[in-house]
Amino acid sequence: MKRISLRRNDIIRYFCDLVILLLFENAEAAGGLRPLGLAVFSALVFSRRNVILLAPMYLAACLLKDFSYVGLVVAVTPAVLFIAAYFVYHKLNRPMHRTTALIVTLLSCVPRVAFSMVNGEIYAPILSSVITLVAAYVLMTALNAVAVRGLRYRLTVDERISLIVAVGMLSLSLFTIKIRNFNLLYPFFAFCLMLSAYAFQGVQGALVTGLSVALGASLQGGSSGVFAVIMITAGVAAAFKNLPEAACAFALTVAFTFSLFFLDTFSGYGYVNAISIFVGAFSYVLVPRKYKTMLSSSGISYTAVGKSVVNKNRRETSIRLYSLAGVFEDMKNLLSAESGGKTEVSPEAVAYDVASNFCGRCENANNCFRSLGGDTGVILNGVVETSMKKGKATIIDMPPFITSRCKKLNGLIGAVNDRLIKIECAGEQAEEADKNRALLAAEMGGVAEVLDNLGDEFKRPLSFDGRRERRISDELTRRGVDCKEVLVCGEQADVDVTLVVKKEDADKKAIVEEVSRIMKVRLKKTHESDATDGYAGIVLSPAPRYDFVYGSAGKSRRGNDVSGDVILVRRMSKNRVLFAVGDGMGSGKNANDLSERAVKTIENFFEAGFSEDVVMEVSNKILTRHATGDGFSAVDIMVLNLNTGAVNFIKLGATFTVIKSGDEPEIIEGNALPMGVVENVQPFVTRRVLSENDVAVLLSDGVTDVTTGGEIAEILDEERRINPEVLSSKILDAAVKNGASDDATVLTVKIFSRI
Length: 755
Prior knowledge:
Number of domains: 5
Low-confidence stretches: 297-302
Radius of gyration: 44 Å
Helix content: 55-70%
Number of strands: 16
Largest sheet: 5 strands, antiparallel
CATH architecture of the largest domain: 4-Layer Sandwich
Strand content: 5-15%
């Protein structure tokens, strides 16, 4: 056999085994039966404990209870039999089978039955042996689930029943231990009640645990009063399970104490036992939350597998997203590296090309070459250099040598100009290709950023709260809401609660009220969809700190039915809102199309999750590529974060914006060119933080050309209770009164607190 090596955890584990052996061996039911010591010993051996270490512990526990010749034989027999079985299975390199362990347990009962029969007892030892065998099977199942396999996996039905019965056996053992008026059962019972009510199956768990403990204690004490007191306390725990843990712990302490006094069950019940109940209940309250969550969402929970699969899939998705982000980033770098601008062509190369392909084919080429001592490229070099600066070659640029000798002067000039045109076209094509590559590189970089952010989001595992799910279900049922399923996903500001309720209950205010109270976060309904069999699926998410109202007013230029200005208000996520005013150059339908194109492009990129810098860069490049003539547009953008009140103002050719924060109006002016003018325009960006009742006014130049920021600020000051629709109309009326003739648009946004 291999050498036995014990670590600190092993020492603690075997010490606990010794305590369990002492408790169970000392347990004596009414009638003098003591069947549990051998049962727990065989269960511990079956649960892969080292029998060489367990056997001396079992002998010590037995002899402390019955130090006699009979006691020694009864104790030694199972120790020897299990050691022998252990050696056999060790040689076979296999774990001991349950059937073998039960057979050895049955054989271990023979000495006790034989000694009892010699003394004239027949039925009691046989009954004790049967109970020992059944108890061994139950404890083997329970210990295998808890100590060998662990609670990471879902418990089967027989394992749950075995654990409940095992709790009853332990209760019987603990009720035997009495130190004056103190009983070990009380703190154990209080802790188990809290555990079953909050971590496991709620009402059912608390009542079943109470029944198990009550039966165990009653079998030892033989008192119906004990049974009644424990069941009353279990009922109180089940009733108070939806309250905070500390309140439930206090309630069951009071219930246990008062029921004992009123039923007069125990004599001598005093403050020591009251404190022990209190300590047992509150010891569960002090257990770290992560361990409670692990118990609640582990093998006990029927949704554990699905929840585990969700997080597994999220992790795998995040890895793929990161890989895709890397691919797009590489593509961006590759496209950026290939952008080289115009390819410079030297005058010497052009002159040599003309000399070879035009002069070289002339019938007088030899005469010219002989006079120059080489080809005509030497003398054409200056001509080409001058022509490249001017843009074309003329007869004036030709030197006397050529004008006096060349019989194809016009053809020579044409050949030089033809080469210059080809060079210019090639340069334009190269520049166009570079612009396209730059646009694609920017788009690839934006996609890489979006995928990387998505990878970060999916990398974070979702946490589930089984305890709150059950509490929500119970409370909604109490409020008259037929709730079929509940799923709590995430924590605090990132939590989402999904409910499946009857369609006729879906709009009840009690749903949002109760779930918000239980989650301790103000929630709102963000999604509703049809489920099956007359049920609806509802998603509740944290409501942001702020919300907004907006109003607008506008007019078109005289003689046009359509305004060139466009307004956009779009909620991009649960907490971010995009406001935009687009002002296309010109007026009428053409200007409206320009504005629509600019605003729609920006909207699409924002909704795809691109950052603001990437949105403005890529959108401007796209609009510049499609621009013709005056095909550019001024854009005024406001991005509002409803959680923090932070606002980003982004301006490209847009006029000023007026905000009123508190009592002081502020005018924000931008100085960037409109979108579509040049590709590398830098937008004007500034940031402000707004709070409750603050106002922002976005304007087109049809208003600001005739109305100053000071006049608009005065209108804001005059309005005590600001209605955005009314305020927009007043500002537009002031502009018209001042002579506004162009397209004019006002968009007013007011934020307010929801807390």
